[in-house]
Write a structure and sequence with these properties.
It contains 23 helices and 16 strands. A hairpin with a 5-residue loop joins strand 12 and strand 13. It binds flavin mononucleotide and iron/sulfur cluster (SF4). Iron/sulfur cluster (SF4) binds next to helix 19 and helix 21.
């Protein structure tokens, strides 16, 4: 049998040198006259081990990483094509602790299969969910998704089944499925990983959504910073169309569903669902007032499901294994699994899919291994640029929508950014206001004007001008933004600001005191 070598083609792995490694391996194969098949798989998400090269051996797959081009010659000399020992030897990928501790439902195939092989997809359970869905009525599919407890993974945590039911029950000559792949949150990369590593699962999820709600057309709105994801998705759609997964008759059924990939123009606010719809319609991305809900009047004024990549990519496993199976994972009203993305100043950065319920401390200290600098963790920001900063005192908070809300935080798209004790929380608070000022769509006053006034007021605290008075002013401003903004950009910017003030008061003291404390 020809040896099979897996080298990730995922953007994260490429950024860490996977292309150079692939070239070195291809060169070495040619020089040694060895015939082998190179598969450009997705990443398994253990980025601290990328580029992670795997070989298929008689005893299963064996991983090596992080591989540098300079390792390649010695890898061949060590007999790595048959799993030979080498300083980069990691053993069976499934047994690497970071991967072994995960519960992979949505990401089960990511890094395992050839992303653009429909055969490989089917061999690993792909299309089972769609096949099962086709045997049900649309209402029964919606009932399954509702029963699974799946909530939107884009940030708001809204129950997916309820959203789908609204679209199913709304009359429309045309309905749409829009996939939100804008992935603007800091420290997040789950959407990108799925699109690059297992694109058919998103296509399958969107097709099921179409059948369940009566939509015949889907759009994936991908951020412009993701050219690799756009390329893979476009190829995958073409393959799915040729294979009859998409088109006038989905898998030979009476249902029609097709989709297109669209590239965003690069604005954080275009991730907000109504601004995204404007952008998709070719307009400037401005937030729309609700009602009407997109489910009633969405893209081009038609009933529209708008869901995050991970919400849609989680549907196939629910339809394959059943709502009860999925619902069995998790805690409280947070059911199933969540791909936690660990980033920032952390030792083991990567994607960790787990059932809801792990504590923040377990994620940061045990899975993430603490900071990369080796200094104490000072704060972690959870949920992107609008998420709260959590101090170590709150590390017992379980990863659960309600538990985070109870601590004035949010899970968002499940990105965690770790900071060590050199972080200045006053600067972070200023950054949150500045970010809001730059990204504001400008539609409402608390956000458009408030964020700019927020930056100016924090600057006065930095300069030592009436710090107490200005701190009270920032707090007052945060309340105005929280309760008076039209969307969560202005409404949630107070979370990083107020959590910094509440949990790290020393950083807001006048400069001389701060210097003395240091
Ligand atoms: C400023 C802002 C940015 C957002 N960015 C994203 C994003 O990048 N991706 C995403 O899926 N949801 C984003 N959302 C949430 C969406 O508005 C919406 O809730 C989501 O697409 C719904 O899908 P879900 O129910 O599957 O989560 C953002 C919201 C706001 C207010
Ligand atoms: S809160 Fe900001 S981004 Fe949202 S609608 Fe108002 S101005 Fe636009």
């Amino acid at each position: 049998m020809i040896p099979r070598i897996y080298i990730p083609g995922d953007s994260g792995a490429l950024a860490l040198g996977a292309e150079k490694v692939a070239k070195a391996i291809a060169g070495e194969l040619a020089e040694r006259g060895i015939e082998a098949k190179i598969v450009r798989n997705g990443s398994r998400g253990a980025y601290f081990l990328e580029p992670m090269v795997e070989v298929a051996t008689a005893n299963g797959r064996i991983a090596y990483g992080p591989v540098k081009p300079s390792d390649v010659k010695s890898l061949f000399d060590s007999g790595f094509l048959t799993g030979g020992h080498h300083k980069r030897w990691l053993g069976t990928p499934d047994k690497i602790p970071f991967l072994a501790k995960q519960t992979r439902l949505t990401f089960a195939r990511c890094g395992v299969t050839d992303p653009l092989s429909l055969e490989s997809y089917k061999k690993h359970g792909g299309l089972n969910g769609l096949t099962n869905a086709l045997a049900l009525t649309p209402a029964a599919i919606v009932a399954q998704v509702t029963e699974s407890g799946l909530r939107g993974r884009g940030g708001a945590g809204f129950p997916t089944g309820i959203k789908w039911k609204t679209v199913l029950d709304t009359v429309g000559d045309r309905k749409y499925i829009v996939c939100n792949a804008d992935e603007g949150d800091s420290g997040t990369f789950a959407d990108r990983m799925i699109m690059e590593g297992d694109p058919f699962v998103l296509i399958e999820g969107m097709t099921i959504a179409g059948i369940a709600t009566g939509a015949t057309k889907g759009f994936v709105y991908v951020r412009s910073e993701y050219p690799h994801a756009v390329a893979v998705m476009n190829k995958a759609v073409e393959i799915a169309r040729k294979a009859g997964v998409l088109g006038a008759s989905v898998l030979g059924s009476p249902y029609a569903f097709d989709m297109e990939i669209r590239v965003g123009a690069g604005a954080y606010v275009c991730g907000e669902e109504t601004a995204l719809l404007d952008s998709l319609e070719g307009k400037r991305g401005m937030v729309r007032a609700k009602p009407p809900l997109p489910a009633h009047k969405g893209l081009f004024g038609k009933p529209t499901v708008i869901n995050n990549v991970i919400s849609l990519a989680s549907v196939p496993v629910i339809m394959d294994k059943g709502a009860a199976y999925y619902k069995d994972f998790g805690m409280g009203r947070s059911r199933g699994t969540i791909p936690i993305q660990i980033a920032g100043n952390v030792k083991y950065a990567g994607l960790f899919e787990a059932a809801f319920g792990m504590t923040l401390g377990e994620i940061v200290d045990e899975i993430g291994g603490g900071t990369a600098t080796g200094r104490p963790v000072k704060a972690v920001q959870v949920g992107g640029p609008l998420g709260a900063y959590f101090p170590r005192a709150l590390f017992d908070t379980p990863f659960d929508y309600e538990a985070f809300a109870a601590k004035d935080g949010l899970i968002g798209h499940a990105g965690i950014v770790v900071f060590d004790d050199t972080a200045d929380m006053l600067k972070q608070a200023r950054f949150a206001m500045e970010f809001c000022a730059i990204e504001s769509c400008g539609k409402c006053t608390p956000c458009r004007i408030g964020s700019t006034r927020g930056v100016e007021t924090i600057d006065r605290i930095v300069a030592g001008i009436e710090p107490e008075k200005n701190l009270a002013l920032v707090t007052d401003l945060c309340n105005t933004m929280k309760f008076g903004s039209l969307c969560a950009l202005g409404g949630f910017t107070p979370y990083p600001v107020m959590s910094s003030i509440t949990h790290f008061p020393d950083d807001f003291k006048p400069a001389p005191v701060r210097v003395a404390a240091e």
